[in-house]
Amino acid sequence: MTLLEVRGLGVALERTGRPLVEDVSYDLSEHECLGVVGESGSGKSLASLALLGLLPAGLRASGRARFEGREILEAPAAARAALRGRVFGYIPQQASGAFDPLTRVGPQLLEAARFAFPDKTEAELREEAESLLSRLKFKNPRETLAHYPFELSGGMAQRALIAAALLLHPRVLVADEPTSALDAVSQKSVIDILGRVRAETGCALVFISHDLAAVQALADRVIVMEKGRVVESGGVELFGHPSHPYTRRLVETRRALSRHFLEALR
Ligand SMILES: Nc1ncnc2c1ncn2[C@@H]1O[C@H](COP(=O)(O)OP(=O)(O)OP(=O)(O)O)[C@@H](O)[C@H]1O
């Protein structure tokens, strides 16, 4: 079943009307992973922030986006806020900036969950957070909840953010470059975890990334963005025979990087 239908989504500067994202359209079904690729500045983040109702001040969205048939772009602010967390989970690019440095990880993780599930007791929420952290490969979840954010490594902070999003049982998880600030081992671990999360919870995933290999590992379908527009879309196998010159360049750059790496190892 189609969960999300995006048609002609645009983002423009409010003051001048200059378009930054134009005419983005896609469908996302239950359990599906859509990869969004394109180089820096191609509009990947803004297209997703528009859906979440989190565009920076001075930008406005246009077009249509429906979740389970209900229009969301034009919904009142309160209705959009209610969709964040429970319907749309969001994992931002920089985990370190997403936490309040003066508050321990536990209270930050539980705050939104308390609000989303007023009927659950504190003990239930805490138990759920600990079990989630354990599934996300934290060796000592109880200790992690008592840590301050600066006590977590980059990979741990990113995984804690995934836990924060999952505690709200989102229907669609939007992950914006969740691995770009991580070392290779942590990158692989986060990608594995996102794949597992999808299989275990059944939530749909919008996975925004520069990393074609990561997208190939996770996504069912992809959209390729260049200069604010979708230039190619289809099954993830399109990386094997890209038809748009821009996609061909992205794929060739990725192959050349891999070749250099393998040659350096010889
Ligand atoms: N608040 C803003 N005001 C004006 N222009 C903006 C604003 N935010 C982003 N832009 C511009 O919109 C375009 C798309 O930005 P966006 O962040 O969506 O790109 P991206 O593909 O996600 O890049 P990256 O991979 O580097 O995160 C870029 O040209 C960017 O400079």
UniProtKB/TrEMBL annotation:
It is a peripheral membrane protein. SMART domains: AAA. InterPro entries: AAA+_ATPase, ABC_Ni/Peptide_Import, ABC_transporter-like_ATP-bd, ABC_transporter-like_CS, P-loop_NTPase. Residues 6-252 form the ABC transporter domain. Pfam families: ABC_tran. GO terms for molecular function: ATP binding. It is found in: Cell inner membrane. This is ABC transporter ATP-binding protein. It comes from Mesosutterella faecium.
